[in-house]
Amino acid sequence: MLDLKNITAGYERGRPVVREVSLAVAPGEAVGLLGPSGCGKSTLARVAALLHRPDDGTVTLDGALVTEWRHRAPRAQRTTVGVVFQSPRLAADPRLRLREIVAEPLRATGRQIEVRERVDELADLVGLGGDLLNRRPHEVSDGQLQRACLARALVLRPRLLVCDEMTAMLDASTTAALVAAVERYRSQTTASLLAVGHDRTLLERWCDRAAEWTELSG
C-alpha cells in the first residue's frame, strides 16, 4: 500500500531531518513508527501523506509512483490517504463548526450531495453526539475536536490512514475511543494504517508490528 524508499527530507541547520529512511506498509496492515521527539518521524509522516516532497528517495502509493505533492498530486492519490495530526487546534479552522470541519474534503472535491449522510455517519463512528457538530472549536475540548479531525480524515474513505501522534495530547479514555474508531473503520474497509508515536505500549497493542526509527536508516 505504501513504500517509502531511501527518503531524505526536511533540512534543518543545513542537515536533513530524515536521512535515507525506508518503510513499507502492506495492504490492510497496521504499522507503528516508534521514535523519540525530534527524530524526524513527523516529517516522514508528512511525506507518506503526500504533504511534503522529499529531497531524495521514492514514494510508491497503492502500486503507483508518486511524482507530485500536495494539491498538485492527482486527486486519486490525494484521496487515497487520510491524515490526523497531533494538535487538533492547529489542524482545524477556528471559524468553522465541527460539522463543516468534517465536511471540508467533501466540499473541496465537489461531493456536496454526500455531506449530510456522510458527516452524520462518521459522527456516530467517532463519538460526536448531541449538538457537538454545531459547535466551533473553542466550544469543545481537545478530545472532541480531535474526534472531528479523525472524522474529516475518514470522510473520503481513504485506503491508508496516517496518524501522527494522534493521541499524544489526550487522556487515556479518549485515546482508547479514537483507537477503537480507527479500528472500526479499518474492519469495515481493510484500510492500512501508519501510526506514528513514542508510546511503545500503545503502538505495540494497536498495530500488527512496530518499526523502530533507529532501524529504518539505510
The number of distinct β-strands equals 9
- Helical coverage, percent range: 25-40%
Distance between the termini: 21 Å
Secondary-structure-derived class: alpha/beta
Report the radius of gyration as a whole number of Å.
Answer: 17 Å
**Number of helices, where a helix is a run of at least 4 consecutive DSSP H or I residues:** 8
> In terms of per-residue confidence, which ranges show pLDDT below 50 for 5 or more consecutive residues?
none
Shape: globular
Quote the beta fraction.
15-25%
InterPro entries: AAA+_ATPase, ABC_transp_ATP-bind, ABC_transporter-like_ATP-bd, P-loop_NTPase
Organism: Streptomyces melanogenes
Family: Belongs to the ABC transporter superfamily.
Pfam family, one: ABC_tran
What features would you describe in this structure?
The protein has about 220 residues and is α/β, with parallel strands linked by helices. Helices cover about 35% and strands about 25% of the residues. It has helices at about 40-50, 75-80, 90, 100-110, 115-125, 140-155, 170-190, 200-205, and strands at about 1-10, 15-25, 30-35, 55-60, 65, 80-85, 160-165, 190-195, 210. The strands form two sheets. A five-stranded parallel beta sheet has the order 6-7-8-3-9, sandwiched between helices. Strands 2-1-4-5 form a four-stranded antiparallel beta sheet, with helices on one face. It is globular. The relative contact order is 0.21. The model has no long low-confidence stretch (mean pLDDT about 95).
Write the layout of secondary structure elements.
Layout: E1 2-12, E2 15-25, E3 30-34, H1 41-48, E4 56-61, E5 64-65, H2 75-78, E6 81-84, H3 88-91, H4 98-108, H5 115-126, H6 142-154, E7 160-164, H7 172-189, E8 192-197, H8 200-206, E9 209-212
Parallel strand pairs: 3-8, 3-9, 6-7, 7-8
Antiparallel strand pairs: 1-2, 1-4, 4-5
